[in-house]
């Protein structure tokens, strides 16, 4: 059985009457734990970030206490955001589904999913990017219509234009033809200046067709300057760094989510986007004889995602209290999650550029179950999101 963190023994095991009160939303307001810490200005100096699956929802159903916890924070104007490694739909669509399920009014600016940070990668907005993963063309629509990327190509577009790019996917042609669009340019290895050039690869969501997607990724990462159908002459040149691999203007590669597994209704977890990534890493090593593969991974537990989340949180704080200055410190941020490897590790390792201290609260309503030893030790283990909020409100007084 996991050792219970000392701080939990001290604060997270309240008297039984408190737990009884927690099951009813009204007495929350009366209990002293919910007399929130505010600065003399009346502005709370702490905030929350909540994971969604296993914390607020399970198999798309609201978890007990989720509605009450979020309603309590809204009533007391304590800022919070939702921070998930999920994705594959626009933030607007996801927020409206979530608002309905939890019966809480949520704003799209309070919501960060795995690919939301791609929206701020302005350097690629007028370039041509490949968007990989997700159902149909949903992710490319997010990139184009919500994030403002002007030229988006999908593996399905390439397959429909050039079915021999991965002949084994011809059996799925009806699916691809239902959404594929013409390429902005043909690819013509003989005349690179007139040929389709891909400047960046964004894996938005779990790839559906690993054979097609990994073949196209491999082609691009071995190409000259991102021109499909070419092979860089630098590949394998031992006089160059990384033996010449990825030294010839190939597109940068970004993943949105590192999770190896995800929980579906199947009895065993299923491979997620992280599964595709490690499979592709193996392929890359075999093809290149062990060259390094440069790439960037977003999503929890990585620093860029927490930095992005903190920016959103600070903006939300400022929107709630206009007297908050741009450099005012948010003293503490409480990350509430069910996954030790993503939610908890991310919060524990995060280095806030604003000097905020992040604390991690592990709930037992999702991936982590009572009695297991968490792979990353949280600040505290709590029963559910209601207990997490109550613990944090008390802790924030200290
Ligand atoms: Mg989760």
Automatic annotation (TrEMBL):
Protein name: Uncharacterized protein
Pfam families in the record: Hydrolase_6 (PF13344), Hydrolase_like (PF13242)
Record NCBIfam families: CECR5 (TIGR01456), HAD-SF-IIA (TIGR01460)
Any one of the GO CC terms: mitochondrion
SUPFAM superfamilies per UniProt: HAD-like
Regions crossing the membrane: none
InterPro entries on file: CDP-alcohol_PTase-I (IPR050324), HAD-like_sf (IPR036412), HAD-SF_hydro_IIA (IPR006357), HAD-SF_hydro_IIA_CECR5 (IPR006353), HAD_sf (IPR023214)
GO biological process, alphabetically ordered: glycerophospholipid biosynthetic process
């Amino acid at each position: 059985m996991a050792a219970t963190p000392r701080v939990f023994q001290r604060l997270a095991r309240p008297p039984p009457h408190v737990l009884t009160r927690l099951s009813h939303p009204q007495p929350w307001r009366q209990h002293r734990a919910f007399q929130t810490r505010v600065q003399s200005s009346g502005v709370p100096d702490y905030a929350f970030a909540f994971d969604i699956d296993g914390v607020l929802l399970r198999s798309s159903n609201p978890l007990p206490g989720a509605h009450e916890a979020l309603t309590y924070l809204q009533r007391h104007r304590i800022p919070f955001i939702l921070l998930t490694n999920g994705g594959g739909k626009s933030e607007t669509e996801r927020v409206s589904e979530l608002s309905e399920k939890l019966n809480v009014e949520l704003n799209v600016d309070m919501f960060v999913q795995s690919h939301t940070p791609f929206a701020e990668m302005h350097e690629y907005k007028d370039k041509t990017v490949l968007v990989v993963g997700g159902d149909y063309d949903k992710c490319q629509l997010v990139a184009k219509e919500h994030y403002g990327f002007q030229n988006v190509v999908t593996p399905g577009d390439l397959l429909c234009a050039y079915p021999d790019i991965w002949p084994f996917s011809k059996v799925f042609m009806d699916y691809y033809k239902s959404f594929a669009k013409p390429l902005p340019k043909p690819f013509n290895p003989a005349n690179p200046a007139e040929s389709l050039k891909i400047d960046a690869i964004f894996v938005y969501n779990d790839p559906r067709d690993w054979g097609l997607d990994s073949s196209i990724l491999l082609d691009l990462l071995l190409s000259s300057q991102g021109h499909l159908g070419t092979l860089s002459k630098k590949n394998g040149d031992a006089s160059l760094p990384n033996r010449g691999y990825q030294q010839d203007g190939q597109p940068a590669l970004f993943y949105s989510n590192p999770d190896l597994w995800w929980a579906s209704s199947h009895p065993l977890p299923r491979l997620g986007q992280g599964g595709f990534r490690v499979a592709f890493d193996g392929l890359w090593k075999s093809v290149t004889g062990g060259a390094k593969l440069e790439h960037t991974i977003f999503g929890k537990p990585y620093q860029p995602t927490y930095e992005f989340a903190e920016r959103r949180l600070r903006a939300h704080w400022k929107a709630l209290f206009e007297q908050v200055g741009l450099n005012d410190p948010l003293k503490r941020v409480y990350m509430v999650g069910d996954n030790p490897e993503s939610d908890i590790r991310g919060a524990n390792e995060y280095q806030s550029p604003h000097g905020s201290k992040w604390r991690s609260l592990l709930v037992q309503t999702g991936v982590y179950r009572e009695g297991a030893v968490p792979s990353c030790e949280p600040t505290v283990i709590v029963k559910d999101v209601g207990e997490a909020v109550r613990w944090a409100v008390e802790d924030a007084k200290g």
